[in-house]
Each structure stands twice: as C-alpha cells, then as structure tokens.
Design brief:
Elements: H1 7-30, H2 35-53, H3 60-86, H4 98-121
Helix pairs in contact: 1-2, 1-3, 2-3, 2-4
Length: about 130
C-alpha cells in the first residue's frame, strides 16, 4: 500500500490539467485558424486518460471527484483560450466540444467498473 496523502489525488489531477493545457497552447498558437480542433483533441484525451489513470490510485473516489472538477475547468478554459487566439467568438465551431462531452461520462463510468474487475481478478491478501 502506498503512503500517498489524500491531497495527492488533487495534486496529480492538477498536474494532468496543467500538462493538457501545456500541450494545447503551442498547438493553438501554431493553428491560429482552427485552435478549437486541437482544444477538442486535448479535452477528448483528458476525458479518457484521466479517469482510467485513476483506477489504480489509492484514493479512487477522491481522485475521480478531482478529475470531474478538472474536466469542467478545462472545458471552460480551452474555449476561452480559443476565442482569445481567434480574436472573435467561436460560434458554431464550439460544437466540436460535444465530442469530449459525450466521451467523458462513458470513461467516468468505465473507471469504477474497471477498478471492480481488476480488484476481483487479484488474489485475496492474507
């Protein structure tokens, strides 16, 4: 068993959010005509990767809660950054963010199921 503190779940999620935003920024600057596509890809990757990395964490539910809050933060920050890069509102182009919005609940529901399957597959400790 690890000796990680309960605040480690939040710290790890914050690091994932910062990493996702750090990946998006250079791509958004390079693609000034369509930064929302890269924002969608980054948010979609975070939507799948973050819940699945929480499966093996000691404070699973706390980690999932932090991931949900982090996802909402990215969901608000990425379109605002895209608007700042474009110099105008996204308008109908913001529809690309529906894909990560549909992916996230599926990955969020898959994480506890995967944790349950992995937990049942491991031999009992004596």
């Amino acid at each position: 068993m690890t000796t990680e503190s309960k605040s480690g779940a939040v710290t790890r999620t914050l690091k994932q959010i910062v990493a996702a935003y750090a990946v998006f920024l250079p791509l958004g600057f390079l693609a000034r005509d369509a930064p929302e596509l890269f924002a969608m890809l980054v948010l979609a990757a975070f939507s799948v990767i973050a819940p699945l990395t929480a499966v093996r964490q000691p404070f699973f539910w706390r980690t999932l809660g932090a991931i949900v809050l982090g996802w909402f933060a990215l969901f608000l920050i990425l379109p605002a950054t895209c608007e700042a890069l474009l110099g105008h509102e996204l308008g109908e182009d913001a529809m690309v963010f529906l894909f990560p919005m549909m992916l996230f609940p599926i990955a969020l529901l898959a994480a506890p199921l995967l944790r349950l399957i992995i937990g049942c597959a491991q031999p009992a400790r004596e």
